[in-house]
Structure formats: C-alpha cells, structure tokens
Write the structure tokens for this entry.
Amino acid sequence: MQIEAKVYNALLDVVNNARKEGRMITPKDTQSMLKDLKIEGKELVYSKALQMVNNQLWYNINSLHELKKKGKKVGKLRYEKIMKIINYNQSGFNIDGDKLILSKIGEIKVLFHRSLEGEVKGVIIKKSATGWYAIFQVEVEKKPLEKTGKVVGIDLGVEELVTTSDGVVIENPKVFDKVEKRIKILQKSLSRKKKGSRNYEKVRKKLAKTHEHVKNLMNDYIHKVTSWFVEQYDEIYVEDLDVKGMVEDSNSKTLRKHILYSNFSKFMSYLSYKAERAGRRVVKVDPRNTSRTCAKCGYVKKDLTLLDRVFSCPKCGCTVDRDYNASLNILRAGSGLPREPVDRKPLLYIPFSKGVYSKFPGRSRKSSP
C-alpha cells in the first residue's frame, strides 16, 4: 500500500507539472507511464493493481472538477502516505476453499462470513481499524421474488428511521448518540498525546475502532430493514430527499448530526439495488408538503413545524402521527391512488432490539431477498 501511494504521488506530480506547462494530459497518458516509473518495490505490486491506482487518481481529479463546476471552493489533491486499498480487478486472484491467492502477495487464509454467490469479478483488500478485509465483487443473476400484491409508502425521518403507510414504525437507533461521550473523551485524550508516540497510536486506534463500530452497526441495520421492504412489497414509494440540502439548511447542530448519521442516502442506495435484483420497483416522489398535507382531506397546514409530532387538521379534524400522515401522502403521490380514510389503529413499533435481528412483521430471521 505504501508502494501504491508512491506511484499515486508520482502520477499526481506528472499531472500537476503538465498543467503548469499548459500541456494536455489524459488517463491513458499516465497509464502508459506506469511501466517506466522508477519506484523502489514497484515490481512487488501486481500490474493491474497499479492501473487501478491510476484510475483512482483520475476519479479524484474529476470529482474535484465537478465540485468546482458547481461553484464549490476546492483545493488541490493531496499526496498519499499510504493507500487504503489494493484493488484486483478482473484478474490476479484465485479462490481455493478458504484461501485467497493474490498475484505478487501469495496465499492468504480468509474467514468468509457467507458463501460467495455468482462470478467473482474482483477483489479489494482493505485495512481498517479492526483488521484486514477482503471485499469480493461478484456478478449475480437477478432473482425475481414472487409478487405479494402489496405496495407501501415510507417516510424516512430522524425521530423514527422509517414510518410506513401500513402503520409500521421502525426505530432510528441513533447509535452515534450512545457513543458520542466516549468519542469526545478519546478525542480529548488524543489531542494531549504527542503525535506519533506509542500512546498517541493507542488512543487513535481506539477512536478509529469506535467510529468503525458505529458505521458497521448502522450498515447492518439498514441492510436488514431494506431487505424486509424488498421481500414484503412489490412497489415502494419514498421521498426523493436532498440530504445535502437538508444538512445545509438546518440551523440545529444536533439535527444536522442526526440527519448525517441516519444514512438516508445509504438507505436509498441499498433499497434500490436490492429492489432491482428482486424484480421490485422503487419510486421516488416529490417531498414537498408530504408532512404538511392532510392525508384525509388534502388541506395544507403551512404552520407545521419540526417540533409538531402530531398532525391535527383544522379543516376536517383528523388527528394522526405526523410521519404516518406523510407516509400516506407519499403512497398517494407515488401510486396515484385516491385518498382513503386514515386508519387510526395504533402504529406497530419495531424497536432496534428487534430490527437488528430481522424480527419484522411476516419475516423470519432466515428470510432474505
């Protein structure tokens, strides 16, 4: 990974120098230079992995360019001390039982958390705070599920992660809140240590592991929630949220934190790819006034605030949970179905302690889309 970083930095120098001199340079140009780069230990890295380093460089360059086009203030690309991954794309790897054989590295024993399905197209070796991981990129055939005849509108939120038009409420565990105090203590401790010292590294690793634990816990939870939706419903209607805009428009630091750590974008990404693979349909609808519109009569209550957790319609007298009201409006906006009387039965609450074990209505733990 250090050798890859040296290659990345050398190619970045080439690009920067070319631009200073006013010369045109392309990804093909830098890729053709890989062979002649004089970097100690370069022969120890698989050639295709070095090509992926070049791809990463140009991905970073293009990302900065896109941000600049949108009017964002951007700096220059930084040099890398160490690359975070080694990418074996298409070739240079083989799997033999519980062993992963990598070109230029050799044989590595792997603990698979589940059996591989489909054709393996690539392997990414990643080092994180908790150890080394092999990420397998596989191509699998679509496996359409049987039709259920059910459709649903879902409202994503901060107070509750999901509220559905069927009256199911799934808890937002707000995992970060539960470890925030520990993170602040570790950050304070880290700031008092001499950078590069043994104690500094010890605290830094603890901090990194805590952040990784939060990330992994939410990823796992979102996987389970989205799998349940795809299994249960033929069509899923959801708001087309501008998460970045929501964060920027919020005046509350706590709300911004909760929006970010609720991972709405990741939720949509997981839901969409699982639905496509299972032959389901995800429809995004305009989020404007979904919370402020009465699901029963259509009256728009413009003075509704984020603090109002119950929607009370001054026109028809309907009183209902705010998020449930929004989910009914999302269902109507996506499906085009006419308004129906609001079901006032108690909502079914799914706490994190059940959701994390996939204990959702109509689903066994072993089910999977």
Remarks:
- Residues 364-368 have pLDDT under 50 and may be disordered.
- Residues 85-139 form one domain.
- Residues 87 and 124 are 5 Å apart (CA to CA).
